[in-house]
Amino acid sequence: MGRGRIGLFLRAIAKWLVPLAVIVFIVVRVKFARVPVLAHEVKAGPIVAEVMGTGTLEARVKTVISPRIQGILSEVLVDQNDPVEAGQLLALLEDQELKLQVDVAESALAAARASAQRVRADEARAQAVVHQAQLEHQRIAGLLTNRISSQADFDKAIELLNVASADLRRSQAAIVEADSQVQTAEKQLAHQRELLTYTRIVSPYNGLIVRRDRDPGGVIVPGGSLMQVISTNEIWVSAWVDETAMAGLAPGQPARVVFRSEPARSYPGEVARLGLEADRETREFVVDVRVNRLPQVWAVGQRAEVFIETGRKSGVLTVPPQFVQWRNNRPGVFVNERDVAVWRDVTTGLRGQADIEIAQGLSEGEQVVAPRDFQTQLRPGQRIRAGGSIQLKAAP
Predict the structure, then answer these.
(1) Which pLDDT does position 328 carry in this prediction?
(2) What's the predicted TM-score (pTM) here?
(3) Are 202 and 90 in contact (CB under 8 A)?
(4) How far apart are CA 34 and CA 378, in angstroms?
(5) Is residue 26 pLDDT above 80, yes or no?
(6) Minimal CB count within 10 Å: which of 26, 74, 146, 344?
């Protein structure tokens, strides 16, 4: 009877010992097992801090070529991708009607000038008549004084002088009117000649034709796009940059441009100007980065990333950004000390695209560690197993 009770007791204890042993095994395994981590040896080297933005390649000066008058497009002398020079003829409009208008204006000017010459001749004749009337008036007045001539003759001489003076004033007024008609005809001729020049559409500057929109035979109106020309003197990327980087940017800063057509290559550039208005939705503002050297094949409007250099140092300690963590609003790293993860507060400096400067808290040659995946979190004092490393990649 005693033995049976002892057996039941032992079986009851065994029933609870197995789960308890499993739990103890798991706890020990979790607590003392080595966690696989990535490792990086801290070394001194250069670091370049950059601000990134994404934008499109644009020409600073671009113009939509459009006629100043309505007309039928007669010829288009250039095509897309053609280089052009200032004043080069690009297209022609039909000009027969405008040439006829010029001929009519030239005839009207010739008639106005002939009329002006005629009224000037009339003025000379009127001046001669006035002079003769004045002499006759003086002669009759002398005779009247000597009682040789009558009062009637004197009154008639006065009347003739007044008539001659009125004719002279009318001739002078006709000259003013004729001169005004000549000026009007000259302006009308100049206007028609100016309109005739509008049939010749020329390039406003040295540049490149990037788009052609019309072909000969169609009617084109002012404001209608015939083609688009850009100046190749200055090509830049208009990039959108987060407003938080605004304080560190200034015109003239060096930059590199990476086109999506050549993602492994950088082209040199510099900040040309900063926008003064931020987008109220994205909180970004435009930074125009001048491209000092373009790819062999490029297109206006193509996408590109710009990396603007805001700082540069050499001989500083750096680590990849994934090794820096934040605790209690302070940055820090885990250091491998005899296969144990030890937390170390650090002071950071410049932040590059692939690394962060560690100004204080680490020494050259130490090894920092980080979890292999985002789900795992290291704890101070945790045993670790470094099974991989990260190599910093230089900017392209």
Answers:
(1) 87
(2) 0.65
(3) yes
(4) 11
(5) no
(6) 146
Q: Helix, strand, coil % (nearest 5) of the chain?
A: 35, 35, 30
By DSSP bridging, strand 347-351 and strand 325-327 are: unpaired
pLDDT at residue 168 in the model: 75
- Nearest CA-CA partner of 322 in 275, 273, 373: 373
SS3 state of residue 293: coil
Tell me how far the alpha carbon of residue 141 is from its chain's centroid. 88
pLDDT tens across 225-259, in order? 999 999 999 999 999 999 999 999 999 999 999 99
Report residue 394's pLDDT band, with 50, 70 and 90 as the boundaries.
Answer: very low
**Between helices 96-145 and 151-197, what is the axis angle to 10°?**
170
Mean pLDDT of the chain: 86
Q: Are 200 and 194 in contact (CB under 8 A)?
A: no
Q: Give the Cα separation of 146 and 75 in Å (integer).
A: 88
Would the CA dihedral through 94, 96, 101, 105 be positive or negative? Answer: positive
Q: In 126-259, which ranges are E strands?
A: 200-202, 207-212, 219-220, 227-230, 235-242, 254-259
Pairing outcome for strands 384-389 and 35-41: parallel
Those residues whose C-beta lies under 8 Å from the C-beta of residue 301, and which sit 6 or more positions away, are: 56, 57, 58
Q: 275: closest CA among 288, 266, 289, 257?
A: 288
Q: How far apart are CA 337 and CA 359, in angstroms?
A: 20
| Helix/strand/coil (H/E/C) assignment for every residue in 253-266 | CEEEEEECCCCCCC
Helix (H) or strand (E) holding 396: none
Length of the chain as a residue count: 396
